[in-house]
Amino acid sequence: MPKYCISGLIIEVTAPDWALHEDLRPFQCNTGETDVYCNIVFQKQPARPGEEVKIIADTLGTLIYEFQDIIHNLCGDDQDIPSYTFSSKDWAYHTMFIEPEYNNPNDNIIVQAVREGISAALRDVTILALIQRRGLIIHSSTILWNGEGVMFSAPSGTGKSTHTRRWRELYDTPILDGDTTACRIVNGIPIVYGLPWCGTSGEFINSSAPLRAIVFLQQAKENNIKRLDSREAILRLIARCFLRPWSHEVINQYLDTVQEIAEKIECYLLDCLPDSKAVELVKKCLEKN
To answer: Bridge partners of 152?
Structure first.
């Protein structure tokens, strides 16, 4: 049963070796007390209870309900991976069901589909575990600069990966993660972590650093940067975070953490072109402040 240390959390996974994504390997660890348990089973979906259940979410493709102190998460159909998940109410124990037909390590197409499905499910588990521990996963590309993390956040296609790669070209700054970054408040300090979920960027490292600043990017005809007040920073950060709104408690924990990060960290809005001058502008701003 391998353990993975992801954003400071120890996640223990019971699954065949062939079913686990290769991007998880750099995060494997041998010590530490387990925070989250995930059991992957190749079995048919359990029968749904005939009794009345408490609906948590009912959207296109997903039904989430509570029954006898267990959270049930049903995906669109039995071909999804996983198609059904049981979770304890404290989100510490999860059993994920995958249809038996996918238990085929000799079919490369099936293997890749299973690995990607389990990896995505583990990301969702991590999101919930982090929210309970003053943490978030933020859609962002983050660099390591002078021993600290500088996070660049924007919708897909805006150019955050292009911007961080220019930093690396100019200043040899490692890219902590090219698509998603975890941030946790640890002893009052926001800490950022690389994650095994890096989108199409293909770039991540298993490392962490104190967060220096968050820079929200938007395309423009000229480069300009301004400091955001906490209210605008909170609104922009909310839009860039991953959330599973499965209870009022989870939502409140999430909002509290967003507010704390936005109030502790310098947040900027960068109007930018995809050029080196935008990098220089941010660097000078951070050095000045």
So the answer is: 141, 215
Residues in contact with 286: Cβ distance below 8 Å, sequence separation at least 6, in sequence order: 145, 150, 212, 213, 266
**One domain for residues 100 and 168:** no
pLDDT tens-digit map of 94-122 = 999 999 999 999 999 999 999 999 999 99
CA distances from 53 to 48, 64, 189 (A): 10, 10, 40
Rounded to two decimals, the pTM is: 0.92
Do 273 and 150 share a structural domain?
yes
As a whole number of angstroms, the distance between CA 273 and CA 34 comes to 45
Q: How many CA atoms lie within 13 A of 107 on its CB side?
A: 8
Tens digit of each residue's pLDDT (9 = 90 or more) over 210-221: 999 999 999 999
Number of domains in the chain: 2
Please state whether beta strands 36-42 and 93-98 pair in parallel, antiparallel, or not at all (unpaired): parallel
**pLDDT at residue number 49:** 78
* pLDDT at position 245 over 70: no
Q: How far apart are CA 258 and CA 185, in angstroms?
A: 10
3 state DSSP class of 196: coil
Residue 228 pLDDT greater than 90, yes or no: yes
* Exposed / middle / buried, residue 136 (Cβ in 10 Å: 0-12, 13-18, 19+): buried
258 & 139 share domain: yes
The parent domain of residue 186 ranges over 135-288
pLDDT at 80: 75
